[in-house]
């Protein structure tokens, strides 16, 4: 599978009999490799180490993690299957605190178990949970497709687009969110060009987005994160489109560290700033961005780049994985239910009753 | 010398008999090494490859380059000494187009030659030019000292300061410009803390500024360049202070790529944004930032980090070494003649007649 052509290589999740093959994104683009996950612990580790990343993809991975737990469960265990599944969900939930799709996917899996599978024999629970995980992935692909079509209407001909991090096939298992919109605009013949910030510390832009854009034949230019201002000041950016890891009820949203700086630059230069994300990214239980927990990651991600030290090993470091952009800087949310433009007072009612 | 203690290690320029030992900043902080420059060509190469960098230090290096040319000149040459020196100045001037201190230092060296040494024997020209280069370095140290004292008056107690790139001893051969101000505030007991962006692509922040701050015992935190917005949004930055490579007559200025984004963030969050630079950085012959030439550097600086590839070797890349920040975003210029606050209409008259 790892030796396969481009279509196969871009498949993030492959189920084989009783285990999950997961594309190891930490090695891309220099190496295309899959890791075998035989338990929910393997999936949890892959999420923590960012071998799978991107808010929707983390949700899908976690869903497969619950299915794996059922396959792993032994009828001789002293724990009940239900306890075992809930414990697995807890382990998976604690891997990364910011993205809300993870919680959403786990809740959906447990709901499927409790409502439809609880009284069934183990074999049926296993296939039922596997089917539910596959459905979450299929739904994500369908959502990506709708996000792409709604979003592409916002992209002008020959637009120079600034995106950020990786929000493509690798981030969702489908077409992608923000990058999916760009791909659709390209497919529609809009002759877009994409500026790709490398996205330190983990370099998802330089490693993953560059790879996906080249596979799709979309023209792009890689920059370091600090070059975005230079491009804005020269009128080289027509619009910005990014993904999101969690969106609060007022429209404030968390996304990869560095997103906020791009939003301020877009605002300062009066350029549109769009956020593309499935409805599962909205957390209406959270009033504003202040309440979104921000994950702090290992300082070595900053001290080293792909394993090469760039400073001394004891250097004091800050390494927040995300920042929060206030809704005032957002020109619109692109969801599978349509585009939501400001003001965002009625986000909740839109999500329930889109036009 | 390379084995010496901290004081010696921080000496950027060491003259030995007939050649210059130059601290190789491209290897810091993992290795402290000096390279021997035996001709102006060696100095030009060191400047091009950023083994010596920082606008004032480039000026000093170029001045020593002219002295080296005189030492290298053979009386049997078919070229006159004057032609040889002017040719050397041309070679040195073409190394990097943005910093104006380079041009200023070369013009000063040629003026010394023409006004005071032209008719003298070769030996006296050599010692005269060496003396002039040493004087430029000594003057820079004196200027740094004054910049530091003027600038420190602007730093509040317990300030959290965001700086950028490296503007310390390594960038000038003296105390530094922006970093010199921070060092002076620290010496005055102001208990400052410094946020240091790594400064991609060449990582002067992570490699050089971190090293200097640790040597001086000043508390700091290393961040990636895209984390500055996060800090501003949380009220963690009290002020920004950066250096400059060229300042136009209206106050627009060029500095390391990424400076402009920090200026926009400071403006958006209503935080002071200061520029510390010697008067030799002002280019009053240039009306505005639009006329400052921006050096485009090797794309491999972006594609690789310290020699490690982060993306594929053919990836399309933009790599401007500098950006231009408009004067509207500047709270003040800290020079050896005092602090210039807005409006900057009378920059020229201030530089000639400071208070």
Report on this structure:
- 2 copies of one chain form a homodimer.
- Chain A has helices at 6-9, 40-48, 55-72, 81-93, 101-117, 122-152, 169-172, 178-187, 204-216, 228-233, 259-268, 300-303, 347-352, and strands at residues 13-16, 19-23, 34-37, 160-162, 193-197, 220-223, 239-242, 246-248, 253-256, 273-276, 282-283, 304-305, 308-309, 322-325, 332-335, 338-340.
- Chain A is an alpha/beta fold and 355 residues long.
- The first copy, chain A, folds into 2 domains: 2-144, Four Helix Bundle (Hemerythrin (Met), subunit A), CATH 1.20.120; 148-352, 3-Layer(aba) Sandwich (Rossmann fold).
- In chain A, the strands form 4 sheets. Chain A has a 7-stranded mixed sheet with strand order 6-5-4-7-10-15-16.
- The longest helix of chain A has 31 residues, at 122-152.
- The first copy, chain A, starts with 5 loop residues before the first helix and ends with a helix.
- Chains A and B meet through helix 9, strand 6, helix 10, helix 11 and strand 13 of A and helix 9, strand 6, helix 10, helix 11 and strand 13 of B.
Which structural traits does this protein have?
homodimer; 355 residues; alpha/beta; Four Helix Bundle (Hemerythrin (Met), subunit A); Rossmann fold; seven-stranded mixed sheet; four-stranded mixed sheet; 13 helices; 16 strands; 16% strand
In short:
The structure is a homodimer of 355-residue chains. Chain A is built from 13 helices and 16 strands.
Computed CA radius of gyration of chain A, to the nearest angstrom: 20 Å
Helical content of chain A stands at 40-55%
- For the record, the CATH class of the largest domain in chain A is Alpha Beta
Largest protein interface?
A: A-B, 53 and 53 residues
Low-confidence stretches of chain A: 1-9
Structural class of the helices, strands and pairings of chain A?
Answer: alpha/beta
């Amino acid at each position: 599978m790892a030796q396969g052509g481009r279509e196969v290589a871009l498949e993030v999740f492959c189920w084989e009999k009783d285990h999950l093959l997961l594309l190891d994104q930490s090695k891309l683009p220099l190496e295309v490799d899959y890791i075998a996950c035989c338990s929910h612990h393997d999936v949890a580790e892959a999420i923590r180490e960012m071998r799978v990343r991107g808010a929707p993809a983390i949700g899908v991975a976690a869903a497969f993690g619950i299915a794996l737990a059922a396959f792993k469960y032994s009828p001789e265990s002293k724990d009940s299957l239900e306890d075992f599944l809930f414990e697995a969900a807890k382990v998976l939930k604690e891997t990364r605190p910011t993205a809300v799709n993870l919680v959403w996917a786990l809740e959906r899996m447990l709901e499927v178990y409790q409502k439809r599978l609880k009284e069934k024999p183990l074999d049926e629970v296993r296939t039922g949970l596997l089917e539910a995980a596959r459905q979450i992935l299929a739904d994500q692909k369908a959502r990506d497709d709708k996000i792409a079509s709604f979003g592409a209407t916002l992209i002008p001909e020959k637009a120079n687009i600034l995106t950020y991090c990786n929000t493509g096939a690798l981030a969702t298992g489908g077409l992608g969110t923000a990058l999916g919109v760009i791909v659709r605009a390209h497919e529609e013949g809009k002759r877009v060009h994409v500026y790709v910030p490398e996205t330190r510390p983990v370099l998802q832009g330089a490693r993953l987005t560059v790879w996906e854009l080249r596979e799709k034949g979309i023209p792009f230019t890689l920059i370091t994160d600090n070059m975005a201002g230079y491009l804005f000041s020269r009128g080289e950016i027509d619009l910005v489109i990014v993904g999101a890891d969690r969106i609060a009820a007022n429209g404030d949203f968390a996304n990869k560290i560095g997103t906020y700086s791009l939003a301020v630059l877009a605002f300062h230069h009066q350029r549109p700033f769009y956020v593309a994300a499935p409805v599962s990214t909205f957390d209406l239980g959270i009033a504003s961005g202040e309440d979104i927990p921000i994950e702090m990651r290992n300082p070595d991600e900053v001290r080293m780049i792909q394993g090469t030290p760039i400073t001394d090993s004891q250097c004091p470091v800050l390494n927040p994985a995300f920042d929060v952009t206030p809704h005032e800087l957002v020109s619109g949310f692109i969801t599978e239910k349509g585009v939501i433009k400001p003001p965002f007072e009625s986000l909740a009612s839109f999500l329930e009753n889109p036009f």
